[in-house]
Write a structure and sequence with these properties.
The complex is a heterodimer of chains A (256) and B (264).
Chain A lengths: L11 E12 L2 E12 L3 E6 L5 H8 L7 E6 L2 E2 L5 H8 L2 E4 L11 H12 L5 H14 L15 H13 L5 E5 L7 H18 L2 E6 L2 H7 L2 E6 L2 E6 L1 H5 L4 H12 L1
Parallel strand pairs in A: 3-8, 3-9, 6-7, 7-8
Antiparallel strand pairs in A: 1-2, 1-4, 4-5, 9-10
Chain B lengths: L12 H24 L6 H11 L4 H25 L6 H39 L2 H7 L4 H39 L4 H10 L3 H27 L5 H35 L1
Helix pairs in contact in B: 2-6, 3-4, 3-6, 4-6, 4-7, 4-8, 4-9, 6-8, 8-9
The chains are: A alpha/beta (256), B mainly alpha (264).
Chain lengths: 256, 264
């Protein structure tokens, strides 16, 4: 594992030290170390089942680590009380692989729900303005009154991202943002991730096995293989690696 | 690295799984009572669930209750007429409906309709990560989804039980009136002459316990659905089967307790 240091000298927004996680006898993550700095898009690249999603679920406190120190926005996630964790989660956006839209609610209700539940003193006018703003940011203003079942896969992903943006997060965690989408829609999602980074100045971790997504969205890429980061660096550096495991991953993806 | 939280095998694998399941269910119920009395109370969602559970079940409860009243009266008449005691019909029917049938029929219908619906809805939300999405948005999904539904079922099922009892008695009157010239007032007067406060009270207690059972089993099965669409179907199915089984067990226990009080 390579040492990771700040490119800009600024403080790490996400800091992982010596993270271990296993399920039963099977180790998933082994001695993971990573720093992600403010405003940076960090791509975690790896095969399915490599533990990428487990990593971001630990970051948001959905899974406890077996060992290690995980700090997000300066707070050690596994040491927080329920209320403190909720307060931290309001500063983190999580975009699910399946979009996870509430299918009994319309797009508008999906977007309003986190605001109504968390910011109880917010006026109806402010809620409407926030909804319009994030829908505009993801380019789906006309879908406001539709149900999730009426949306395409790409539109669902966009609305899922809009729902996380509505709470104005400082950190974004994307779980396989382009999986199951056609190449053109993948391209649109990649652009959206970059737009979110620029417009909202978010620090992001993007979990993917899609090389195009990694190349287009990642300021840096961390290659997760066999539960460990093999290499962290620019996409081109990783791509140029002559490590056999990394090469086989890249070759397989190109054949795909 | 070995998982520190890995459990040691104590008995056989099946027994271990059984006790682990019982402990998990106990923790779920304990969490319900812990969360139910803490703000926020999501009153709007409780009212919404009361509407979904209660109002939408009214036609089915009404139809079943009315038919039960008619059929039970039709079946009882020949036996009573053998002894020349058809005038006892209103009393007999009232006792049967108020003490047992209304609450039991309502609970069984709700276990099938409401329990399966809650199990499938929450199971589907679980496998499509909608429950996780609430959690990462700092919304307590247990409180919003489980507590509200269990409270709504606990409030609504007794009300539906009363309604079912009334409709069943109307069905019975409809049958009696088609054969004998008995007025509605006379029918109800005769019927309620033998009904005591304990009968109505124990029926309400039963319905409340049944409502809680339907809600907690449905939410437990749905909330803990395993991944995949098969898990959703399984959650809905198990919610119905287990709730119905427990309803019969509770019926025996509460009837026995009511009898102890009655003859004490």
């Amino acid at each position: 594992m390579e040492n990771v240091e700040s490119k800009t000298g600024n403080e790490a927004v996400i800091s992982i030290r010596g993270l271990y996680k296993s399920f039963g006898e099977e180790p998933i993550l082994k001695d993971i170390n990573l720093d992600v700095f403010k405003g940076e898009n960090m791509v975690v690249l790896g095969r399915s089942g490599a533990g990428k999603s487990v990593l971001i679920k630990i970051l948001i406190g959905m899974l406890p680590p077996d060992k290690g120190v995980i700090k997000v926005l300066g707070q050690q996630v596994d040491k927080l009380s329920g209320k403190e964790l909720d307060a931290l989660r309001l500063r983190i956006g999580f975009s699910f692989q399946s979009s996870a839209l509430y299918d009994s609610m319309s797009v508008r209700q999906n977007l309003e729900f986190p605001l109504i539940m968390n910011l109880k003193d917010m006026s109806k006018a402010d809620i409407k303005q926030s909804v319009d703003e994030v829908l505009d940011a993801v380019g789906l203003t006309e879908k406001i009154d539709e149900m999730p079942s009426d949306l395409s896969g790409g539109q669902r992903k966009r609305i899922g991202i809009a729902r996380t943006l509505i709470l104005k997060p400082e950190v974004m965690l994307y779980d396989e943002p382009t999986s199951g989408l056609d190449p053109v829609t993948c391209e649109e999602i990649n652009e959206l991730i970059n737009e979110v980074q620029q417009k909202y100045n978010t620090t992001s971790i993007i979990i993917t096995h899609d090389l195009t997504c990694a190349k287009e969205t990642g300021d840096r890429v961390a290659m997760l293989l066999d539960g460990q980061f093999f290499k962290v660096g620019k996409f081109e550096e990783i791509f140029a690696s002559d490590n056999e495991k990394i090469r086989s991953f890249f070759n397989y993806n190109f054949i795909q | 690295m070995k998982n520190s939280r890995q459990h040691k095998k104590v008995f056989t694998k099946a027994l271990d799984a059984y006790f682990a399941g019982v402990y998990k269910a106990y923790k779920f119920v304990a969490r319900f009572f812990k969360e139910a009395f803490r703000p926020p109370f999501h009153v709007g969602e409780i009212i919404n669930q009361c509407y979904v559970i209660g109002v939408k079940s009214l036609p089915l409860i009404a139809l079943t209750g009315f038919i039960t009243g008619i059929v039970f009266t039709k079946q009882s008449r020949p036996s009573l007429s053998e002894f020349g005691a058809t005038s006892w019909l209103p009393s007999l029917i009232s006792i049967a409906i108020v003490r047992a049938l209304a609450s039991l029929i309502t609970a069984l219908i709700c276990a099938g309709k409401v329990g399966s619906s809650i199990g499938a809805e929450l199971g589907s939300m679980k496998v499509t990560e909608q429950i996780d999405a609430m959690e990462v948005s700092a919304i307590n999904p247990f409180k919003y989804l489980v507590v509200t539904r269990v409270i709504a079922a606990t409030i609504t099922v007794p009300v539906l039980g009363l309604f079912c009892g009334f409709v069943a008695l109307m069905g019975s009157y409809f049958n009696v009136h088609s054969i004998e010239a008995v007025s509605l007032v006379s029918f109800f007067k005769n019927g309620f002459a033998t009904i005591t406060f304990l009968d109505v009270g124990s029926a309400l207690v039963k319905s409340t316990v049944f409502g809680f059972t339907i809600g907690i089993i449905g939410t437990y099965k749905g909330y803990n659905a395993v991944k995949g669409t098969r898990g959703v179907g399984q959650a809905a199915n198990e919610a119905v089967v287990l709730a119905m089984f427990l309803i019969f067990v509770e019926e025996i226990v509460i009837v026995q307790m009511a009898n102890w009080i009655r003859y004490f």
